[in-house]
Amino acid sequence: MAYSWFKAFHIIGIVVWFAGLFYLVRLFIYHIEANAEPEPARTILKNQYQIMEKRLYRIITTPGMLVTVAMAIGLLSTEPDVLKEGWLHVKLLFVALLLGYHHYCGRLMKQLAADECRWNSQQMRALNEAPTVMLMVIVLLAVFKNNLPTDITAWLIFGSIILMAVTIQLYAKKRKRDKEKLTAQIGQPQEQS
Questions:
Q1: Which residues bind heme (predicted)?
Q2: Are 34 and 49 in contact (CB under 8 A)?
Q3: CA nearest 27: which of 93, 117, 98, 121?
Q4: pLDDT in tens, 81-94
Q5: Less Cβ around it within 10 Å: N or C end of the chain?
Q6: Rounded distance, CA 150 to CA 70, Å?
Q7: Where are the alpha helices (DSSP H) in 34-85?
Q8: Exposed, middle or buried: residue 88 (CB in 10 Å: 0-12, 13-18, 19+)?
Q9: Sign of the C-alpha dihedral, residues 25, 116, 58, 101?
Q10: What average pLDDT does the chain have?
């Protein structure tokens, strides 16, 4: 019975943690893009994003991470033999990378608050894809364990995810170009007829 409780709350923790990670970096993107706004909008937006980032990180994302890790330890305590499995070692490697990503986001949040972040919004969009890839690998390992499929279907799914990430990046570049065109058009004086 303990296994089922640990597993249920582990899944809940994962959902909360990833929801926070996905939205946090999106807020970073908006925070960076606020630099292009005129005053006083720039300051108002940056202050608001800073508040939202801190609350999201401290109240949702970090507790989600802690619940996930605590429940994973609980799961392992009910089945200690699983620690000998190769698939779990790979999964734990990706979880360690995810924990590093989580803490790096906390560092980026502090840099943004101090106006010391060197990342641009395009780089942040690329960074925002990292947890998607890690989530995919972690879930596939948890479901398939040592029988992870390497057939054409698995490669098509992987390719679809990569295609989706590339499409998102291209769409972001198009939006940026369209915005620059619009700004240039607004800046030009209107011809009188």
A1: 10, 91
A2: yes
A3: 121
A4: 999 998 999 999 99
A5: C
A6: 31
A7: 41-55, 62-78
A8: middle
A9: positive
A10: 90
- pLDDT tens digits, residue range 101-145? 999 999 999 999 999 999 998 899 889 989 988 998 899 889 888
CB 13 within 8 A of CB 71: yes
**One-letter-per-residue 3-state SS of 163-180:** HHHHHHHHHHHHHHHHHH
- Whether residue 146 is predicted with pLDDT greater than 70 in this model: the reply is yes
Closest CA to 158 of 130, 129, 127, 137: 137
The residue count for the chain: 193
Cβ(25)–Cβ(105) under 8 Å?
yes
Per cent of the chain over pLDDT 90 is: 64
The Cα angle at residue 96 between residues 94 and 101, in degrees rounded to 5: 90
Q: Is 79 helix (H, G, I), strand (E, B) or coil?
A: coil
Binding residues: 10, 91
Q: How far apart are CA 99 and CA 134, in angstroms?
A: 11
Q: Which residue has the tokens 């960076």?
A: 32
